[in-house]
Structure prediction request, 173 residues.
Amino acid sequence: MGREVHRIAYDEAAIQHRVKELGAEIGAAYPDGDLLVLGLLKGSFVFLADLVRQIQRPLHVDFLVASSYGDATVSSGNVRLVYDPETKLEGKHILLVEDIVDSGRTLQKLMELLRVRAPKSLEICALLHKHIATELHHPVRFIGFDAPEEFLVGYGLDHAEDFRHLPYVASLR
Ligand code: IMP
Ligand code: MG
Prediction:
């Protein structure tokens, strides 16, 4: 038997409301230049799809695939880049979109990998931030929600690939 959803932390309406605000914030933060929104797969796919539709300025979308967790609920710290965007990052505003920041290991590793490609700017947008990240040495510029210190699923977030399709974010029993 798999684990069960315990409590809804952020319902569909709360998420949509916040994503709309974030889209406006991001649009205002980049008055000019090329903006490339880089979604970290798989966790960010739902958030990214909603978010880019709330950003009222030209942008491109690409993806990164990093692998770290496997089926565990704690980070192994072993970050691998499985898919690297084909798009050139040099001279562009890069906005990395992540589902959740936990230890911050994944993002720290990715920031290091991307920074050497000389983007014009490099920022992070995370739907959820647990604020327990000790490994990330870069502030998360755009945050959807300050998340509780629980394992969360839904709206793209999984546990062993389950629950990604839920339209809300919930904690696991
Ligand atoms: P970090 O490297 O420890 O910050 O882990 C980041 C990645 O771990 C996220 O992109 C998620 O895929 C996964 N993760 C961390 N916490 C959770 C959680 O509460 N629920 C689901 N996935 C999580
Ligand atoms: Mg995951």
Q: What stands out?
A: Strands lie at 5-10, 35-41, 60-67, 80-83, 93-101, 121-129, 142-146, 152-153, 169-172.
